[in-house]
Amino acid sequence: MTDQFTPPPALGCRTSPVLKQRGQREVFCGLTGIIWLHRKIQDAFFLVVGSRTCAHLLQSAAGVMIFAEPRFGTAILEESDLAGLNDTHAELDRTVNELLSRRPDIRQLFLVGSCPSEVIKLDLSRAAERLTQQFAPKVRVLEYSGSGIETTFTQGEDACLAAMVPVLPATNERELLVVGALPDVVEDQMLSLLDGLGVGPVRVLPARSVDTEMGVGENTVYALTQPFLTETHAALERRGAHHLAAPFPFGDEGTTAWLAAIAAEFGVSDEKFKEVTEAPRRRARAAIAQASQPLHGQSAFFFPDSQLEVPLARFLTRECGMTAIEVGMPYIHDAVHGPDLDLLPSGPQISEGQDVDMQLDRCRAARPDLTVCGLGLANPLEAEGLSTKWAIELVFTPVHFYEQAGDLASLFARPLRRKSILGVAAE
C-alpha cells in the first residue's frame, strides 16, 4: 500500500538529535480528560477524589450548569481528610454508596486520583478492588490517576484506557481493535471506511457501553488514533496484542497511511483500497488546499503540551506548506511516534520534555509566524506580537480522518487570518 500516499522525505526526523529538557514545565491537569471521556463512555461515572479546586476545574472546563446531572463529580477531600483525622476509605465507601443508590444507570465507575489524593497516599487501587467485590457484576469499578504532577493533560485518557485493558476478556479471535476516544461522528466515519475495505470485526476502545462485545489476545491487532496512548499501548502488548505502527490519521496523508497499514494487515487489494478512499481523499485535499492558503510559507513553533505535536507538525509541513522551527513533545515513544517522525522533513529542532524559560527564549529569538502552545503561554506571547494556537483546542475539536482535514487546517489558519485582518484595520 506504499503507493497510496506521498513518499516520505529523503531524510526524516526519526534519527534527528533530540533536545532533552528537564526543567520547569507548563502543563494542564490530566483531570480534563474526563470532559471528553464522560461523553464517550455513556454508562460510566468519573468520581474524582480531590479538592474543591479539582471540582472547580472540572465545572469550568466542562461548562456544566448547576442543575445539570453530568456523569462526573468530585469526592472532596476536606482539611480533616488531608490531616489524617478521618478514615478516608470509609468516607469514600460512603460517597460511592450514595452515588450508586442515586444513579442506578451507572455500569462503570472510575475512581480518579488527583494531586491531593496522591499526596496523602490514598490507595485507590485497593478501594477499587473492595468496591468491585461489593457491587459486581452490576457495576465495574476501576481506578486511574488524573493527577497533574509530572504529566500532561492528555495522559488522563491514556491512564483511563490503560486501566480498562487488564479487565478486557481474553479472546483468540482475529480482530482489529481501534484505540482512542473520538467524537461519535468521527468514529462512525472511521468505521464506515473500515467496513468499506472489508476489515472486521472491528472493536473500539473505549466502547460506548460496558456491554459492548470486546476482547483482547494474541490474535488481536490494534491501531492507535491518538498519539498520547503510550501506556495503553504497553498494556495491550502485555496482553499479547499486535500493534500496527502507522502515522496518525490527521489530514489526507496521515489518514491514508493509517488505513493503508490496516489494509495491508488484512489483505485488502490496492484496487479495493483506491475504490474506498479515492472520493474522500479528493474531498480532503480540496478542503485542505482551500483552508491552508494563509499557512503557505509560514513557520510554526510547537511547545510540548498535548502529545499531538509531531503528527500535527507532519501535517502542517507536508500538506499545508509550513516550515517547522521546533517541535516539542512531552514524551517521545519511538514505536508510537516513529512513523510520523519518518515523514516529518528534517530541519526542525526536536525536543522532549520542557524547560519553559529556555524554550520561550528560543521561541522569541525565532519569531515564528505561528506558535502552538498551552493556555498559560498563549496570552503573554500574543502580547509580544506572536500569533498562537491553543493546543487544547486540537484535542476538543473533531480533527481526525478525511472529512475533518479541512477543519484541522482551518484551526491553524484562523490565528493568521485574524492577525492579517487586525493589521489591515490598524492601518
From TrEMBL:
Under Gene Ontology molecular function, one entry of this record is: ATP binding
- The answer, when asked if Nucleotide-binding is one of the entry's keywords, is yes
Entry binding sites for [4Fe-4S] cluster: C29, C54, C115
Going by the entry's taxonomy, the superkingdom of the source organism is recorded as Bacteria
Show the Gene3D superfamilies listed in the entry. Nitrogenase molybdenum iron protein domain
Q: Tell me, what is an example of a GO biological process annotation in this record?
A: photosynthesis, dark reaction
Record's keyword terms, sorted = 4Fe-4S, ATP-binding, Bacteriochlorophyll biosynthesis, Chlorophyll biosynthesis, Iron, Iron-sulfur, Metal-binding, Nucleotide-binding, Oxidoreductase, Photosynthesis
The record's cofactor note says: Binds 1 [4Fe-4S] cluster per heterodimer. The cluster is bound at the heterodimer interface by residues from both subunits.
List, alphabetically, the InterPro entries matched: LIPOR_BchN/ChlN (IPR050293), Nase/OxRdtase_comp1 (IPR000510), Protochl_reductN (IPR005970)
UniProt EC number: 1.3.7.7
How would you classify this enzyme at the top EC level?
oxidoreductase
Q: Which cofactors are reported in the record for this sequence?
A: [4Fe-4S] cluster
Every copy of the Nitrogenase/oxidoreductase component domain together lies at: 29-406
Which Pfam families does the entry mention?
A: Oxidored_nitro (PF00148)
Q: Per its UniProt record, what SUPFAM superfamilies does this chain match? A: Helical backbone' metal receptor
Query: Which biological pathway?
Result: Porphyrin-containing compound metabolism; bacteriochlorophyll biosynthesis (light-independent)
Q: Which HAMAP family does UniProt cross-reference here? A: ChlN_BchN
**What protein family is recorded?**
Belongs to the BchN/ChlN family.
Role of this protein: Component of the dark-operative protochlorophyllide reductase (DPOR) that uses Mg-ATP and reduced ferredoxin to reduce ring D of protochlorophyllide (Pchlide) to form chlorophyllide a (Chlide). This reaction is light-independent. The NB-protein (BchN-BchB) is the catalytic component of the complex.
Q: How does it assemble?
A: Protochlorophyllide reductase is composed of three subunits; BchL, BchN and BchB. Forms a heterotetramer of two BchB and two BchN subunits.
- What's the protein called, per UniProt? Light-independent protochlorophyllide reductase subunit N
Please state the gene responsible for encoding this protein: bchN
